C-alpha cells in the first residue's frame, strides 16, 4: 500500500499549494484519479507498472516526462523513499512498487477544468455593470444611439433605413416629411453645418470676443487698477493651470514610456502581456480565469467580443472642446447663434428627424449592429449641426458639400492687436448654400470695441447689439430656408421626382429608398413602381428591405449603411 500512500500524499501536497479554489478542486480530482489508478494496479498483482501500458522510465516517453516535469535524477521525490518512477526498483526495501506521480496521472486523465472556469467567469460577469437593454424598433433605436454618440451621418442613414423598411411607427415618421422651398425637394432633415474662419493677428493670447457684460480682458485706457489686478490674477491662474496640465501630461508620458519598456522587456524574454494570464489557451487556474478581457472567450472589449458584458461607454452628443474654441473667439456671438439654431431645430423648422433624441437612454441600448459607434469625421457643435472645419469660407463650403450638407453657417473673425495689446475682434456670420457654394445672406459686423463704447455710455446691452446685427440673417433663414408642409403630388409629378432621386449621386441609397417608400405609402406610386425603383436603387438588398423578414431587412440595411457615401 506504500505506492498508494505515496500517490495520496503527493496529491494532498499539490492540492494544499493551490492559489485558488478552482485550482484546488481540479488538483483534487487529479489526486483521486491517481489514487484509483494505483489501487487498480496493485489489485492486478506484484508485477507493478512494469507490465502495464507504462513499462518504465527507459523509453522515450519517460525521458519526455523527465524533461517536462523534472522527474529525473534531480527530482526531490526520486530519492525520498517514494519509489524511483514507473516500474523501477523500489528504494523502500521490498515494500512493493511505487505509485505513479500525480502529474503523470494528470496527463493521463486530463481533468476537465471548463465547468469550473465557466462558473467563475459567470461570477465575474454577473458583478459587472451592464449596458442599457434595448427595447422597441431596432433600427430606430440604433439611429438614436448613433445620434447620441455624436455620429449624425450614421444616425441619418439608419433613420432612413427605418423609414425604408416601413412599419406602423415608421409611417408616423414618414408623415412628418416637409418641403424645402429653396432646394425644391421633400426632407425629413435639413442638414446644417458650421465652420470658423480666423484672419489677422490670430496668435494673440486674448481674442477678446464680445461678452455678456460688454467688456473684455483688455488693458485699455478705461481699465482701473482693480481691473488690472483681476487681469493679472486670471493670467497667473491660467499659467498655473497650464503648468498643471503640462505636469500631468509629462507624468502620463513617463508612465506610458515605462509601460513600453516593460512590455519590450517581456517580449525579449518571449513573453507578452497575454502570457502572464494565459498559456496555450489556459489562464491562471483554467480557461477564462485571468483578469476581465485577457483570460478567455467572451471577456474582450468592444469590437472583439460581447459588448453587453461591459459597461456602456459614456455618450457624448456634441464636442465640448469644439464648443470651447468657438467660445474663445466668438463669445456672446457664438452663444446667440447657438441659441437661435437650437430653437429652430427643436421647433422642427429644419425637419423633425431625430429632434426627439434624449442625451441619455436606458431602453435603446448602446450599440449599432452589435458594435460600438465610431466617432464621426465631422463632430456636432450643437445637436444636428456638424462642424466642417476652419479656414476660408470658400474652402469650408466645399467640405460641407462633400459631407452632403445643405446649409453652412460660417463665422468669419478678424483680429487686430495694437502696440498696447488692445485687440479688435470683428465677427460676421454668413449662410451659404452648400450645394452651389453661393452666399445666401450675411449678418452685420459685430465689433467688440463698439460694444464696449456702448456699454460705457449706457446706450444698450451687448445682447441687444448682437441680436440687431443678426436680425436680417434670421429673417432670410426663416422666410426662405426653413421647411414647410409638403403638398400633395400627382402620380405624374411623383414619377418625375423619383427619376430625379434615382439620378442624385448626393443621396445615399437608404435616403433614396426612404423617399420612394413614402410615395408608395401615400399611394402616389403603385406597388410595382415602388418595387422597380427599389431594385434600381439597391438590388437584392433593397428587395430584402421591401419583402424580406425583419431580420433579413435589418441585415440588408446594415449592408447598405456600410457602403461609402457617394458624395
Helix-strand layout with pairing:
Layout: H1 2-16, H2 21-43, H3 60-69, H4 102-109, H5 114-126, H6 138-148, H7 152-165, H8 168-174, E1 178-180, E2 185-187, E3 192-200, H9 225-268, H10 273-277, E4 278-279, E5 282-283, H11 320-330, H12 332-346, E6 380-382, E7 385-390, H13 393-402, E8 407-417, E9 423-433, E10 439-442, E11 446-447, H14 448-457, H15 462-481, E12 483-485, H16 491-503, H17 509-521, H18 527-547, H19 550-562
Parallel strand pairs: 3-7, 3-8
Antiparallel strand pairs: 1-2, 1-12, 4-5, 6-7, 8-9, 9-10, 9-11
State the shape: flat
Strand content: 5-15%
Can you give the helix content as a percent range? 40-55%
Largest sheet: 7 strands, mixed
Report the average pLDDT across residues: 75
List the keywords.
three-stranded antiparallel sheet, alpha+beta, 567 residues, 19 helices
How would you characterize the overall build of this protein?
By secondary structure, this protein is an alpha+beta fold. 49% of the residues lie in helices and 10% in strands. The protein is built from 19 helices and twelve strands. The chain has helices at 2-16, 21-43, 60-69, 102-109, 114-126, 138-148, 152-165, 168-174, 225-268, 273-277, 320-330, 332-346, 393-402, 448-457, 462-481, 491-503, 509-521, 527-547, 550-562; strands spanning 178-180, 185-187, 192-200, 278-279, 282-283, 380-382, 385-390, 407-417, 423-433, 439-442, 446-447, 483-485. The strands form three sheets. Strands 3, 6, 7, 8, 9, 10 and 11 form a seven-stranded mixed beta sheet that branches. The chain has a three-stranded antiparallel beta sheet with strand order 2-1-12, with no helix packed on it. It has a two-stranded antiparallel ribbon with strand order 4-5. Strand 8 (407-417) and strand 9 (423-433) form a beta hairpin. Helix 6 (138-148) runs antiparallel to helix 7 and helix 7 (152-165) crosses helix 8 (168-174). The longest helix is centred in the middle third of the chain and has 44 residues, at 225-268. It is flat. It starts with a helix and ends in a 5-residue tail after the last helix. Residues 1-19, 45-96, 218-235 and 265-309 have low confidence and may be disordered.
Amino acid at each position: 500500500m506504500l505506492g498508494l500512500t505515496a500517490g495520496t500524499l503527493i496529491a494532498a501536497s499539490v492540492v494544499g499549494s493551490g492559489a485558488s479554489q478552482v485550482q484546488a478542486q481540479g488538483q483534487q480530482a487529479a489526486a483521486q484519479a491517481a489514487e484509483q489508478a494505483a489501487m487498480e494496479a496493485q489489485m492486478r498483482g506484484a508485477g507493478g507498472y512494469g507490465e502495464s501500458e507504462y513499462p518504465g522510465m527507459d523509453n522515450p516517453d519517460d525521458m519526455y516526462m523527465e524533461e517536462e516535469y523534472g522527474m529525473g535524477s534531480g527530482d526531490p521525490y526520486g530519492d525520498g523513499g517514494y519509489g524511483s518512477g514507473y516500474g523501477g526498483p523500489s528504494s523502500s526495501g521490498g515494500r512493493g512498487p511505487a505509485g505513479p506521480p500525480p502529474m503523470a496521472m494528470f496527463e493521463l486523465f486530463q481533468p476537465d477544468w471548463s465547468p469550473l472556469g465557466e462558473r467563475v467567469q459567470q461570477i465575474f460577469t454577473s458583478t459587472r455593470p451592464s449596458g442599457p437593454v434595448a427595447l422597441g424598433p431596432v433600427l430606430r433605436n440604433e439611429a438614436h444611439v448613433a445620434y447620441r454618440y455624436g455620429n449624425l451621418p450614421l444616425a441619418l442613414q439608419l433613420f432612413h433605413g427605418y423609414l425604408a423598411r416601413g412599419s406602423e411607427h415608421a409611417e408616423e415618421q414618414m408623415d412628418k416629411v416637409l418641403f424645402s422651398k429653396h432646394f425644391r425637394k421633400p426632407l425629413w432633415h435639413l442638414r446644417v453645418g458650421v465652420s470658423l474662419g480666423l484672419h489677422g493677428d490670430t496668435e494673440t493670447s486674448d481674442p477678446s470676443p464680445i461678452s455678456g457684460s460688454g467688456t473684455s480682458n483688455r488693458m485699455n485706457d478705461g481699465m482701473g487698477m482693480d481691473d488690472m489686478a483681476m487681469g493679472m490674477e486670471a493670467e497667473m491662474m491660467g499659467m498655473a493651470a497650464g503648468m498643471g496640465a503640462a505636469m500631468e501630461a509629462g507624468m502620463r508620458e513617463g508612465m506610458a514610456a515605462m509601460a513600453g519598456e516593460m512590455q519590450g522587456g517581456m517580449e525579449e524574454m518571449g513573453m507578452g502581456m497575454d502570457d502572464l494570464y494565459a498559456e496555450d489557451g489556459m489562464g491562471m487556474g483554467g480557461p477564462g480565469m485571468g483578469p476581465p478581457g485577457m483570460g478567455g472567450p467572451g471577456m474582450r472589449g468592444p469590437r472583439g467580443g460581447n459588448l453587453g458584458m461591459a459597461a456602456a461607454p459614456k455618450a457624448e452628443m456634441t464636442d465640448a472642446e469644439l464648443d470651447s474654441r468657438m467660445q474663445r473667439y466668438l463669445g456672446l456671438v457664438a452663444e446667440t447663434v447657438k441659441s437661435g439654431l437650437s430653437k429652430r431645430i427643436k421647433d422642427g423648422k429644419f425637419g423633425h428627424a431625430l429632434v426627439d433624441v434624449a442625451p441619455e437612454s436606458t431602453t435603446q441600448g448602446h450599440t449599432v449592429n452589435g458594435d460600438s459607434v465610431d466617432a464621426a469625421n465631422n463632430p456636432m457643435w450643437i445637436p444636428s449641426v456638424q462642424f466642417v472645419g476652419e479656414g476660408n469660407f470658400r474652402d469650408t463650403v466645399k467640405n460641407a458639400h462633400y459631407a452632403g450638407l445643405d446649409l453652412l453657417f460660417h463665422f468669419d473673425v478678424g483680429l487686430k492687436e495694437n502696440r498696447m495689446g488692445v485687440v479688435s475682434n470683428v465677427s460676421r456670420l454668413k449662410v451659404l448654400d452648400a450645394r452651389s457654394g453661393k452666399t445666401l445672406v450675411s449678418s452685420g459686423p459685430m465689433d467688440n470695441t463698439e460694444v464696449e463704447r456702448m456699454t460705457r455710455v449706457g446706450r444698450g446691452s451687448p445682447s441687444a447689439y448682437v441680436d440687431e446685427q443678426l436680425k436680417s440673417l434670421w429673417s432670410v433663414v426663416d422666410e426662405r430656408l426653413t421647411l414647410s408642409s409638403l403638398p400633395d403630388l400627382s402620380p405624374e409629378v411623383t414619377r418625375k421626382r423619383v427619376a430625379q432621386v434615382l439620378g442624385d449621386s448626393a443621396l445615399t441609397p437608404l435616403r433614396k429608398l426612404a423617399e420612394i417608400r413614402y410615395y408608395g405609402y401615400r399611394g402616389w406610386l403603385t406597388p410595382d413602381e415602388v418595387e422597380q425603383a427599389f431594385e434600381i436603387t439597391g438590388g437584392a438588398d433593397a428587395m430584402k428591405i421591401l419583402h424580406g423578414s425583419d431580420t433579413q431587412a435589418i441585415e440588408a440595411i446594415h449592408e447598405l449603411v456600410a457602403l461609402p457615401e457617394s458624395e
